[in-house]
Design a protein that fits this description.
Order of helices and strands: HEEEEEEEE
Distance between the termini: 82 Å
Shape: rod-shaped
Strand order of the largest sheet: 1-2-7-5-4
Radius of gyration: 34 Å
Number of helices: 1
Strand content: 25-35%
Largest sheet: 5 strands, antiparallel
Helix content: 10-25%
Number of strands: 8
Length: about 150
């Protein structure tokens, strides 16, 4: 009887192995790398100055974009800005060059960034200038906010 059971098990196992089949298929794996940019800004602080003379200052912007992408960096919406203390204003301008000849605005000047990758940001210097404004009122609280836009 043991021999019969053992023979049956072996025959069943052999038959199962003889009838085993496999099927294979494939599937694709895909991805897209979306363009993206990150902006890191630093404040432009003119500090104290003589309003009969004016002053200059600068700040840096770091723009990092996805590798292979490019974009345009623009500032503000005009070519003359004004800081305010809530009551009084103080005009200033922003430039793309240290000699203050190329105004940086959305209308006429921009900077181009090409994506070397997010780990390698492009650094841009914003040059600011306050021309002499003898009528400027004394205040320690003049401030403004400039919007930096990267179009990519």
């Amino acid at each position: 009887m043991k021999k019969l059971i053992l023979t049956s098990l072996i025959a069943t196992g052999v038959m199962s192995a003889a009838h085993a089949a496999t099927e294979t298929s494939t599937f694709q794996v895909t991805a897209e790398v979306a363009a993206s940019c990150q902006i890191t800004t630093n404040s432009l602080a003119f500090g104290s100055f003589d309003p009969s003379v004016g002053t200059t200052g600068s700040a840096s912007l770091d723009v990092a974009c996805t590798s292979g992408s490019s974009g345009t960096v623009t500032l503000g919406s005009g070519n003359m800005w004004a800081m305010s203390d809530g009551t009084n204003s103080l005009n200033y301008a922003l430039y793309t060059d240290a000699s203050h000849t190329s105004v940086w605005d959305n209308m006429t000047a921009s900077q181009t960034v090409t994506g070397a990758g997010l780990a390698t940001p492009s650094t841009f210097t914003v040059y600011g200038k306050i021309d002499a404004q003898p009528a400027a009122k004394v205040s320690a609280g003049y401030a403004d906010t400039v919007t930096v836009t990267v179009t990519y």
